[in-house]
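Structure first, sequence second, as always.
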């Protein structure tokens, strides 16, 4: 992430409201019963909703985000819920993912395609990746700067073809792609 992008993200974090009632991403909540126990990593954690959810279910959780403001909110929220999370201030683009360290990795609404190989290597054998993100559609405005951060139809499935895909959905109306995949 460039310094300009970092500044814009931090300014957005400081400007936008905080929803203390926000729960985990739907995909993480829906998959919780089938996730292996152990260590979890929440990539680009934001306000920590996935990280806190997993910590409350007994996971040892690392949560990475570039925004100090977001991590401060996440820390406060976790403290209110007595959830223990290792909050890591780092740029995912530069972060050194530990190999085979995590039983669960969650990514929600963050374009990690440039780091996806490193993320997959961070999965322990049998580890699960839960990834939910924006999807492009034919109706998207190609001039929209955020369009470059969205997955093309089939792109996430192809990028994770070396994993066993347990669930894969592309909802073109909602412009979302959801995937649960295992490192078998």
């Amino acid at each position: 992430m460039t310094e300009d992008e970092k500044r814009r993200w931090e300014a957005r974090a400081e400007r936008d409201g905080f929803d203390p009632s926000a729960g985990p991403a739907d995909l993480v909540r829906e998959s919780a019963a089938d996730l292996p126990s152990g260590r979890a990593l929440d990539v680009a954690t934001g306000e920590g909703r996935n990280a806190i959810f997993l910590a409350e279910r007994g996971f040892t959780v690392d949560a990475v985000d570039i925004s100090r403001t977001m991590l401060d909110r996440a820390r406060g929220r976790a403290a209110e819920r007595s959830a223990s999370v290792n909050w890591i201030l780092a740029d995912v683009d530069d972060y050194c993912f530990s190999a085979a360290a995590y039983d669960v990795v969650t990514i929600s609404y963050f374009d990690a395609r440039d780091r996806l190989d490193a993320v997959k290597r961070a999965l322990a054998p049998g580890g699960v990746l839960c990834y939910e993100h924006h999807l492009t559609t034919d109706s998207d405005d190609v001039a929209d700067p955020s369009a470059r951060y969205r997955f093309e139809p089939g792109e996430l499935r192809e990028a994770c073809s070396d994993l066993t895909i347990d669930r894969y959905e592309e909802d073109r109306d909602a412009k979302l792609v959801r995937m649960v995949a295992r490192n078998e």
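Margin note: Residues 36 and 165 are 15 Å apart (CA to CA).
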